[in-house]
Amino acid sequence: MNSSNKTNGFTLLEVLVVLTIMGLLAAMSVPGVGYLDRLERERITREKIQTIRRAIIGPEDRHDAQGRPLVGGYVRDMKAWPDLWEPRAAVRETFSGVGWENPTAMAAGLGQWTSSGQYTVNPANVYLRPSGYFEGGRWKWQRPFRKLYNDTVTNIDHTGGLETENEGQPRGLWTRLPEELTSGLTGHAAPGEDLGIAWKGPYLNPPLDPNIADSGHWAANDGEYYALEPTFHATSGYETWEEGDYSVTPGELSDEKEQFRALQGDGQLLDGWGRAFKFFITDDPDNAGETIFWIVSEGADQKGVYPSKGTCSGHGWSTLATDVMSAAYNENHPYNKDNLVMKLYSRDWKASLGEQDLDKTGQTRTQLETVRRALLGDAPGSINSGYSGDLLAWPLLFRWETATTSWDDKDGSTAYTKGQPRGIWIATPNSASSLDNLSASKWGLGWRRSYIQEPIGSGSSSLLKDAWGRELLFFYDSADDSMLVLSRGSDGKFTFGTTNTDNTEPAAMTEALTISSYDPSAAYNQDNIYLVVRKNERSPGFFKLNRLIIYNATAATTKARFFRENGTPVSGVDLLTCSILTDEDSDGTPDDCVLGVDSASPAYNYHDASAYKVPTGTRYLVVWNDTDNDGEVDTGELHYPLAFPVTGAPGSGQNGTIRLYTSDLWAAP
Question: What are the residue ranges spanned by the domains of the chain?
Fold first, then answer.
């Protein structure tokens, strides 16, 4: 048998071939990995853009009963785009005036709010870009934030204008106080912008930096940030190009400082590449008076070129109307081709909101009619089955007392003239005291039932609201005994009595009011929905009874009382006594009682010109044997009640003769 020792292996040529193939595969796979990474970042960015869109105008797939797209988010509540806010501008090294260290005396043009509502800057005093500093190795933005606007007067806001390249963020999407004043700036001219009660956010979670070290390759401390481009001019101290290269046509390229700031995720919405989205609010060139809200990611190359509003010379600008975002953004520029851009159009949501507001106006009018019926029933034309028909007054107005966490109708001993009419849905309206409890109905006088459905909510949220979800406002005029019920309408504002500075909330809750002074044509009132209820709608009514004959009565004991008000009845007007008995049934015994003679001399007669008025509603005439002679129908006394519908229609409530036998009387409950 032959045998040999043979070792299996690869030749050098085979090894080289394998290595070559592996190298080719590796070379092919690396671009593939990068491409897949880019696609994933684009997908993340598009999802984030959709999230921002939903926060601003709501989801795309919601429609009302008529099939119209429903507007949601910030725009639904605020009827406007969210403003763009930058951290405040950095003060120049050459500035020698009073700065942010003393906000009450600071120089003008440092980005503080002015009486005209603009956050103006002066390039001689500040740089036109937002500022920050390092604290504990982490970047912090300078507060307060400055609202961006288009300066059409001095045109010095070029790098902060809404139509040009800026670093503003829609902070109202996550905070009601976008200016974010700190406690150390309490003397600042603005108290800190408050977006008011219309704001129902947050619409987005506040942006937080998931990786605070992602910008460390640019700068990790104040010195490194200071050294980034653009540099400072040796003699003037000015930055060489005010943080931008304006030699580029069209527009500018971002500099190193801006690249660093774009990576700061605390306070900025970031795309899939971890860079801040850019936002613009521009005119709509195709629709006069309309605007466009832009959401822009600069894509994989992290570059973009934007119109610059004109040309720069010595920090002054010669403007060019065609050199703005709405007219001159070039999506085909090499740096813009990979940008991911979404444009939202005001023309779309304004039309939808207008239709929604019409619907809400109609719904609110229906709500006010429900309130009117709760107060007046069908008065004045018919029966007052409402609160005022039973209680003979308008309901007291209650306010939520935060100190006692309860509802009360007085500030100390002074009654509120503005508040919620809790008595129309609950007989115990004062949640801390039984002194305001409403007595149960007896003979048609007193609290009978819930006159309106109790509002959803508990504590301070137990409020009657309009179709916009805002509290219906109630005002009471004690001199005129009238009440105004008001919805602030689509803009959420009104002018009547004392209000806060935004005309969104009533103030001075016990002030005397004159309902007749409410002006529906005033600027903030034109979209209000309101109603006024007055005393003459519930009183006086019309009731007349010519004769009341009571057979088999008892002298001085059998009586008749018409219940038109609480308290002691007026003798001879409300309370009639069988003093003289006659034989009306011809049984040979004078045991019958006749009250009233005829239409000229009736038993009861109330009308709009009489001295004693009768409120409209269901009113009771009770005949009874007053055995204890106290003028009240007591439990166990024999009685017979008759109900009459009293209305405010002139000539109504006419009654001839009513006959009644005492044998029909039964024991009062």
Answer: 363-535, 543-667
